[in-house]
Design a protein that fits this description.
The chain is of the alpha+beta class and 231 residues long. The chain has seven helices and seven strands; from the N terminus they run αααααββββαβαββ. The model is unreliable at 1-22 (pLDDT under 50).
């Protein structure tokens, strides 16, 4: 999305009514004295809605107003750009971790029970796996490109991705997949079919990702169809 300057944003807000209706924008609400007040309020609502969508719902409005005022009046900011960006990242991470906490706890409980089942093995990283079929082809290495069929589900059995349904195997190298796949596939030989139980720390982490809830344990049935060796 193209970024607008503050002036351009104010201009677009002031003229939104005319652009959409062919008539001048409505007069300011009674609590707002003029069009500048209306535009200022509109900018505030726009900013609030944006960050609310990002999960940032507990911001200190007084401090936000001070920061905006400092920026508009040319005062030296209390934080430099790098510190600002880091502060937002840390805040969003903590918000996401709180949101994902129930999912994380459910995943930990599932893995603790799952590792006691016969046939399930656990690696030092926390990855769990069981062998459905052991192949007799070449063993995968980190430098290889692999072709697989797979079925991905959550711990409640709900599916979220399935190459079989697409009718097309998936080809990738091991450097561009989640850590659970990078490790798990290197345990396999061509012709093998494994079931991988991937903790969120080896999956997509504590944040939501493409519809996958943050903190999710992911279960994959992976069938290794072939590999391409690279020198």
């Amino acid at each position: 999305m193209k970024k607008l300057s503050l002036f351009a944003l104010l201009f677009s807000l002031l003229h939104a009514g005319f652009a959409q209706t062919g008539k001048p924008a409505a007069k300011p609400a009674a609590a707002l004295k003029n069009y500048t007040d209306s535009a200022s309020y509109a900018v505030g609502i726009s900013v609030a809605n944006f960050y609310k969508q990002q999960g940032m719902t507990t911001l200190n409005a007084t401090v936000v107003a001070k920061a905006i005022n400092d920026g508009l009046t040319g005062k030296k900011p209390l934080l430099d750009d790098a510190t600002c960006n880091n502060a937002i990242r840390v805040y969003q991470t903590r918000v996401q971790e709180q949101k994902s906490k129930p999912t994380i706890e459910a995943g930990k409980k599932f893995l603790a029970n799952n590792k006691t089942r016969p046939g399930v093995k656990t690696t030092p990283s926390g990855l769990q796996y069981e062998v459905i079929t052991e192949g007799n082809g070449e063993k995968v290495t980190l430098q290889d490109t692999v072709t697989v069929h797979y079925r991905g589900t959550y711990i409640n059995g709900t599916g979220f991705d399935n190459s079989y349904d697409r009718g097309q195997p998936y080809t990738t190298d091991l450097l561009h997949v989640i850590a659970g796949w990078t490790e798990g596939l290197q345990l396999m030989t061509v012709g093998s079919k494994y079931k991988l139980y991937v903790p969120y720390t080896l999956g997509y982490g504590p944040s939501d990702y493409n519809g996958i809830p943050g903190g999710s344990v992911l279960i994959f049935e992976v069938e290794l169809l072939g590999i391409k060796k690279h020198q």
